[in-house]
Amino acid sequence: MPSPAGTEVQDGLTRCPKTVSDDVNWGKDEAVDCFRSLVPVVRLANVFGLMPLSVKGGRFKFVRLSLLTAYALLVTSIMALFLVVRVVALLSLKEEDSEEDWVPLLTATVFYLLGATGAILLMRLAWELPDVMVRWAGVEGRLGGVASSRVKLVVCAVVFMLSAAGETTASVFYNIPLNCTVGFWTLLECYVVAGHKYETQLLGYTDGTGLVILLINKYATVVWNFVDVLIASFAIILTRHIRVYNARLKSGCGWWGAEEWRSGREDHLAFLQLLRVMDKALGPLVLQSYVTNLFFILVQLYLGLRPSRREDVVARLYLTWSFLHLVARLLLVSFTCSAIHETSKYSLVQLLNIPTER
Question: CA-based, 20 to 30 A from 30: which of 16, 23, 149, 158?
Answer without folding.
Answer: 158
